[in-house]
């Protein structure tokens, strides 16, 4: 496999990332694609480790998404098996779609409404008392802008962090590498391409703060 330099122009508007595949210091060879993925380096989604993790998440997601409303404990058990962390009193309404599941960490007393899409190639960290509306997408994955590298299936990811007591309205999209500060409200349909500070109301595409939460009507 060739190891050409790859340029990533991350969707959150931060500086382009230029990286080359590096040699594994311990083994003298190329790092596994899973190691590269977890390190936030360019990788290709192939190999037995990645495929096994994707299959695991697919099975557990199906178990959660098809669970009976008459069996809330079974539904909760499926969710705990799928996610990396599920805080006490947190609830997610199915269906939920994710890549790996175990890279999703949610604090206590949070709520996620129907049809969430959490692409957790990199960690997704959601704080306490967070409200997430229906059809929200948290997308840690990103791809090269160079057509040749993209055709060769290289990709990368950057983490997403949602602070305590944030409210994401229905249909909000949060892109790779974004942090949203505590108490912030993001209006329905907004596309969050850059970090948002704490204690603001933000709307639009791209999302921009329009007032503080103290001044909201």
UniProtKB/TrEMBL annotation:
Every Maltose/galactoside acetyltransferase domain range: 34-88
Keyword Translocase: no
InterPro entries assigned: Hexapep (IPR001451), Hexapep_transf_CS (IPR018357), Hexapeptide_acetyltransf (IPR051159), Mac_dom (IPR024688), Trimer_LpxA-like_sf (IPR011004)
UniProt key word Cell wall biogenesis/degradation: no
Record key words, sorted: Acyltransferase, Repeat, Transferase
Protein's name in the database: Maltose O-acetyltransferase
Taxonomic source organism: Micromonospora auratinigra
Cited Pfam families: Hexapep, Mac
Gene Ontology annotations for the cellular component aspect, listed alphabetically: cytosol
Any one GO molecular-function label of the UniProt entry: O-acyltransferase activity
Family: Belongs to the transferase hexapeptide repeat family.
């Amino acid at each position: 496999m060739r190891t050409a330099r790859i340029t990533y122009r991350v969707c959150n508007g931060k500086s382009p990332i230029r990286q080359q595949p590096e040699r594994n210091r311990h083994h003298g060879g190329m790092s596994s694609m899973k190691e590269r993925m977890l390190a936030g380096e360019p990788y290709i989604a192939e190999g037995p480790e990645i495929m096994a993790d994707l299959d695991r998440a697919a099975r557990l997601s199906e178990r959660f998404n098809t669970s009976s409303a008459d069996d809330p404990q079974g539904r909760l058990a499926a969710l705990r098996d799928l996610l990396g962390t599920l805080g006490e009193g947190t609830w997610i309404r199915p269906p939920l779609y994710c890549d790996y599941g175990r890279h999703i960490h949610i604090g206590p007393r949070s709520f996620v409404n129907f049809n969430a899409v959490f692409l957790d190639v990199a960690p997704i960290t959601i704080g306490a008392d967070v409200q997430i509306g229906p059809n929200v997408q948290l997308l840690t994955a990103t791809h090269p802008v160079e057509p040749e590298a993209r055709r060769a299936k290289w990709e990368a990811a950057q983490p997403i962090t949602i602070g305590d007591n944030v409210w994401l309205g229905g249909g909000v999209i949060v892109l790779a590498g974004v942090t949203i500060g505590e108490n912030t409200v993001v209006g329905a349909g907004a596309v969050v391409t850059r970090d948002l500070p704490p204690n603001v109301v933000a709307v639009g595409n791209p999302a921009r703060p329009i007032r503080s939460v103290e001044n909201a009507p």
